Amino acid sequence: MTKGVPEGRIVQNVHAEAGNAYGLIGGDLHVIEGAGPVYLLRDHLSGDRPPPPLTALDGFPAQPSQLLNARSAVVDFTGRTDEVDELTAWRDGDESRAVLWLHAPGGHGKTRLANLIAERATADGWKVLTAEHTTGLVDAAEPSSQDLRTTNATGLLLIADYADRWPLAHLAMLFGNKVLRADVPVRVLLLARSPHVWPSLRHALVQAGWPGEACVSKGLEPLPLAGEARQHMFVAARDCFASRYRIPPAEIPVPRWLDRAEFGLALAVHMAALVAVDRLARTADTPGAPEDMTGLTAYLLQRERHHWHTLHDSGTNLADGNPAGGRVAFRTPPDDMARVVFTATLTGPVSYRDAVAALTAVGLGDADRMLTDHGYCYPPSEARTVLEPLYPDRLAEDFLALSIPGHDSPVTVADAWTDGAACLLLTPRGDGSDPPAYAPRAIGFLVAASERWPHLMSCLEELDDLLPDGTKGALTVAAADLAERLANHRLARTPDAEGKANINVALGKRLHEAARAEKAGAAFTEAVRLFRGLAERDPGSFRLSLAEALAYFGGSQIMEGGTEVWWTAFLNKIITGSRWTPTSRQHDALAALDESVGIMRELAAKDPSQHQGDLAVLLGGTAAALMRLERTEEALEKVDEAIASFRKLASGDDDDAGEHELNLCLWLNLRTMILGELDRHEEALEGAVEAVTAARKLHAADPFRHEENLRSTLEHLARVHGELEHEDEALATIGESIVIGRKMAHRDPEFRASLLSSVESREQILIDFGHWEQALAVCTEAAHLSRAIAEADPAGNEEHLAGTLNALSSVLHRLGRQTEAAAALRESIEIRRGLAADNPVEHEWILSVELVQFGAVLGELREWDEALTACTEAAEITLRRENHGRSGPEAHLTTAVTILGDQLAGDEPWRDPRRPGELAGGFAGELAAVVEGFATALAGPARADDRFPGLAEAIESARREFVSRDPVSRIFGELTGTDPLSFEAAMAELRESGFGRPGGTAVPGTEIAEIAENSTEPSAHCADVLLRAIPRLREGASADPRRWEPTFAAALRCACLALRHLGRHEEALSPALEATESVARLAEDDPVAHRPAFAETWLRAGVIIAELGQPSTSAATTDKAVAFARERSSTEPGYLPSLAAMLLVHARTSATLERWEEALDAAAESFHLRTETFVPSGYAEAERFLTDQLGEHARPAQLSALRAAASAARTPP
């Protein structure tokens, strides 16, 4: 604890040496290696307002436009009462988490509205944070720390401006931040100019577990024409501005022209008020006041230029920090200052070195002087940056447009220097490098300005030529916006169908890269329509174009965005298990791909040299799509054809031979996977070896380019070796793959998914060969990797994280580390619940499977309440799944009930000290419910009501019996159809025998008798249902023992128990004996898991045989059960209580045969094991036990013989 700091307070010291630092408390910091933080989170109250505007010599603001900056908060908020109420109601809604995408064009007042909501939330006790998307710059001047904890807060409100300029992946990172998992209501308000990104983001959020109904979008409407809203807003703004100018506001009337459409913007009304105030203050008698947005904009920009002139003409500016008002030189001419402001508008705030590079790129000399002078006019908002732009954005956009030649505004003269300046700024600095980090901002501002200034379209055309074919990061969003703007412009001016089709193809590619799947699909669909019509009229010229458009459509509908070559991405997604589009879209995509293949096959037949490679690519891509849809045989046929083509092409000597060999590796890998799915591993090995040979050849020629190919190819080969039980080869090969993966991931975190794939393959190989301790270390690494990947992109990777945690849990469980196994499963289940909330068809089934696993582990930990709750949820999901196209619930639901049945019967939970005061009768009822539910699930695929007429009434009766007495009503209440106390007698027998898992103890005979005396008869209906289910399960166990034998054995054991206590001993004997055979088969495959049940089934069979009047045969079977139990307990002391229980049963059977010494020995040993009392005392207890068993009908001769044998046993030899 830090000295002098109160306990409970966190102290975080943030230092920076030769760099910068930024710290968080209570949140995550997402960083891109080499680029710094993706975004910065700050407390809303910590944001400094910009410095007050400079004052001119006349005492008025020198740059009036700075009063319009929303951060300055010069104008009190007024109007938009309905929107304020609506946002407040959204904030205070019942949802635990909610997202609102608030969109409107620039100038509508989104930021001011958000600031008001933030201020009110803060006043109401909410924690309010802002998220700023960065280009990797962190304040180097003063290291900072942000406390994001929500301790004692009413809720958490996070606000992010310019959300439509964030890449989808970066937004996903933001929503994956743990600060949004606070244990208070969470609200996220995203401000944007357009709704373009929202559909894709909402889909990603829902996939990540955000409630779909709480993820909404709202457009901010213009100020209404009718009423007095605009007039009231003008008056409020006028009065606030007049206060700054120290002039009386009443002299300024409300303009008559505010009802024009362009004044539907809050910013437009504020500009009108500001210009009116400034004109009155400076030139009250000047005629010709501007009455439109262009005039108002020109006036404010002229005031900016006037300020530059004044500073330059005087040659001085006030020296910062000089209390004496000293002067320093201001040497930047107004025209040069305009060019610096133009540059700053495009770049936004950047580091000093980036600013110098930008000014140099556009030919502005003496960058140091210009940046100093610009910083005086436009002080940076943060010490880490320079080139603070004009505000507000709308004014800055108009400044750009009026500076670039081509407009017809008479009030402003353009600067020829600006023609081409944007292209110079955005040109990459070197060969193969990306455009500058500020490129997205520059493109976004020019695109927005072009909506009002169409002469900028020529500038946009030039920028489009600069962009690479595959953009990355924030540039994908800007490139998509640019493509949409240009497409609308080009389509309106393109008369021919071919030109329109090509425009749509280009648009679709950009939209697909930005993950705007629906829009991309629409663009490609239109291209297909146009090319189809052209191909019908001129097949020779347009069939190829039609095939390509179909392929692009197919690719866009199968993958969620990306810049990779689409067929390569198919394979990568299959390998890594990445996110795919919904299955419905995949079927549409496959139809398009099939048609494309058909066309390309025709073209390749006519001209193989031109089209065979394209055909092979399409075949491979189609095979990958078929693989995804589990049409494995068809996928193999397609990939075989693709491989044959690539082998031929790769053996050639043309310039593309290397590319063909790379494709050969990719599709050989896919073929390996397909053959593995078909259990044809020997064939798979041959292809995998060929792929590795080709990959090594490519890697030797160009290591950097072909590292990933070699890594993945080695991974596939290792998997095949594992399937063929080639242990040494499998481990050596996957080890090489991991070494390459680590090297790649260290260099670029984007390759962590590749490393994870190799690590998970090693994990599976180790498990397959029984190396559990080694597998645990590898599995732990896989979980760490998967978590890091999911934190960076939750929407795309949380499902994979859940699977990794499940695998970790399985390994921990196998190693007996149940507490850790439960923790890993608990986290996985929480992720699955979120995924299933909006997409139950895809995610509920695996959730139910994990819930059963969770219940089993919790049962072993004796955490009964949570175990019962987990299995309840699993049962409900399993039965509900019948409505979603799955087969009947028997395979899964019976697993749940069998687990519970074994636990409830075997672990004797009534003796658990954590459940005091519960009566045995309650747990007997639980066993009844389990057995009945088990029978119900096995009865067939019909609905429960059809299986059991009158079930609804029986359910209600059972619920009434249980709800006040036992938690079982939460589990199988809706499945039970008989008296819930029907198995009391069965429970008595279980207690007597100590049946179940190690740790159970026998119950004194008097207590058994008391329970049995008060018990009721079990349900004959239940027993009959079990008997009907057994033949069906027998067939299943014969066809698929691994899946069905455990359930078959459980059904036999339950049927035997039910029939015996119905007095139907002859019927009970057959399932009892068959159960011994079934459990014996299970014990051969897994002795550790099934040897206990082996002993128990023999014991139960012996009891039934004795009751049928065959004591000799019964003694033989119980003796065999004791032998099994004795063998187990010799190596596992925890099994001794079960041996003790079985010895009592054997003692009773031996007494029936009047084998007194054998009976006494067995009973005495049982007493000794249970009490650790010396043997002579054990014989005394044994005599009492056997006397009780013989009862009042015992013959005197029997009692005499028993006493004699006991006396002899107690007497030392």
SSE order and pairing:
Layout: E1 22-25, E2 31-32, E3 36-37, E4 39-43, H1 81-91, E5 97-103, H2 110-123, E6 127-133, E7 144-147, E8 156-160, H3 168-175, E9 186-192, H4 198-207, E10 215-219, H5 229-245, H6 266-282, H7 293-314, E11 316-318, E12 327-329, H8 334-347, H9 352-361, H10 367-377, H11 393-403, H12 421-426, H13 439-450, H14 457-466, H15 474-493, H16 497-513, H17 517-537, H18 539-558, H19 566-576, H20 583-606, H21 608-628, H22 632-650, H23 657-677, H24 681-701, H25 703-723, H26 727-747, H27 752-768, H28 772-792, H29 794-814, H30 818-838, H31 840-860, H32 864-880, H33 890-906, H34 920-938, H35 944-947, H36 951-963, H37 969-972, H38 984-993, H39 1005-1013, H40 1020-1039, H41 1041-1061, H42 1065-1085, H43 1087-1107, H44 1111-1131, H45 1136-1152, H46 1156-1171, H47 1175-1190, H48 1196-1210
Parallel strand pairs: 1-7, 5-9, 5-10, 6-8, 8-9
Antiparallel strand pairs: 2-3, 4-6, 11-12
Helix pairs in contact: 1-2, 3-4, 5-6, 6-7, 8-10, 11-13, 13-14, 13-15, 14-15, 15-16, 16-17, 16-18, 17-18, 18-20, 19-21, 20-21, 21-22, 21-23, 22-23, 23-24, 23-25, 24-25, 25-26, 25-27, 26-27, 27-28, 28-29, 29-30, 30-31, 31-32, 31-33, 32-33, 33-34, 33-41, 34-38, 34-40, 38-39, 40-41, 41-42, 42-43, ...
InterPro entries: P-loop_NTPase, TPR-like_helical_dom_sf
